[in-house]
């Protein structure tokens, strides 16, 4: 009986450890500040009239706020896309409460707002939450074509 209890406890401990490891998994979503945006995406201070993307991969930028319900529904979608398209697409997040300068520069009036940036051409903006399949469709058809 004691042996069975010890085995059961070992199984439970292993399961808990595995779950803890999974929870510690690093996110592939990159949170951007104003300065990082200027370096990694577009330095609109130097050239405000011409969009010149600095990235090496197409990008999706999620403008969000922690208090926003629809933003919280979009967050796991962005996490899954960052994982699924790792090495093909960059997924960024910008907290509109913390980065008011970026929110103002992009005239963000409603969140979530998602900016899709192809390697060539102009970025596309989507205001409001969409379903995961819709985000993936834009990524596949507009960014990874």
In short:
The chain is an alpha/beta fold.
Task: Tell me about this structure.
There is one protein chain. The protein has 145 residues and is an alpha/beta fold. The chain has a single domain, classed as Glutaredoxin (3-Layer(aba) Sandwich), CATH 3.40.30. Helix content is 44%, strand content 16%. It is built from 5 helices and 5 strands, in the order H-E-H-E-H-E-H-E-E-H. The protein has helices spanning 2-24, 34-40, 69-84, 100-105, 132-143, and strands spanning 30-31, 59-64, 90-95, 113-117, 124-127. A 5-stranded mixed beta sheet has the order 1-3-2-4-5. Strand 2 (59-64), helix 3 and strand 3 (90-95) form a beta-alpha-beta unit. It is globular, with a radius of gyration of 20 Å. Residues 17-24 have low confidence and may be disordered.
Q: How are the elements arranged and paired?
A:
Elements: H1 2-24, E1 30-31, H2 34-40, E2 59-64, H3 69-84, E3 90-95, H4 100-105, E4 113-117, E5 124-127, H5 132-143
Parallel strand pairs: 1-3, 2-3
Antiparallel strand pairs: 2-4, 4-5
Roughly what is the average pLDDT, rounded to an integer? Answer: 88
CATH top-level class: Alpha Beta
In CATH, the homologous superfamily goes by the name Glutaredoxin
CATH architecture: 3-Layer(aba) Sandwich
The tally of beta strands, per DSSP, is: 5
Strand order across the largest sheet: 1-3-2-4-5
Q: What general form does the structure show?
A: globular
Q: Might you state the CATH topology name?
A: Glutaredoxin
Q: Describe the biggest sheet?
A: 5 strands, mixed
Proportion in helices = 40-55%
Structural class given helices, strands, pairing?
alpha/beta
* Count of individual helical segments: 5
Radius of gyration: 20 Å
**What is the CA–CA distance across the termini?**
61 Å
How many separate structural domains?
Answer: 1
**Succession of helices and strands:** HEHEHEHEEH
Strand content range:
15-25%
Q: Note poorly predicted spans.
A: 17-24
């Amino acid at each position: 009986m004691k042996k069975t209890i010890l085995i059961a406890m070992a199984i439970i401990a292993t399961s808990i450890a595995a779950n803890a490891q999974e929870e510690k998994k690093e996110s592939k979503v990159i949170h951007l500040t104003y300065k990082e945006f200027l370096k990694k995406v577009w330095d609109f201070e130097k050239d405000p009239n011409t969009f010149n993307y600095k990235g090496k991969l197409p990008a999706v930028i999620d403008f969000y706020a922690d208090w926003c319900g629809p933003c919280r529904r979009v967050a796991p979608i962005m996490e899954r896309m960052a994982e699924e398209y790792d090495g093909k697409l960059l997924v960024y997040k910008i907290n509109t409460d913390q980065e008011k300068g970026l929110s103002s520069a992009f005239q963000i009036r409603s969140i979530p707002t998602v900016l899709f940036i192809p390697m060539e051409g102009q970025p596309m903006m989507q205001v409001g939450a969409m379903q995961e399949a819709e985000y993936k469709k834009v990524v596949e058809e507009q960014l990874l074509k």
